[in-house]
Amino acid sequence: MAQALSSKPTARISSIFIYPIKSCRGISVSQAPITPTGCRWDRQWLVVNNKGRAYTQRVEPKLALVEVELPNEAFSEGWKPTNSSYMVLKAPGMNVLKVSLSKPCRTTDGVSVWEWSGSALDEGDEASQWFSNYLGKPSWLVRFNTASETRPVEPGYAPGHSTLFSDMYPYMLLSQGSMDALNKLLREPIPVNRFRPNILVDGCESFAEDLWTEFKINKFTFQGVKLCSRCKVPTINQESGIAGPEPNETLKKFRSDNVLRPTQKQRGKVYFGQNLVWKDSFTEGKGKIIKVGDPIYVLRKVHLL
Question: What is the DSSP-derived secondary structure letter of residue 53?
Answer without folding.
Answer: B
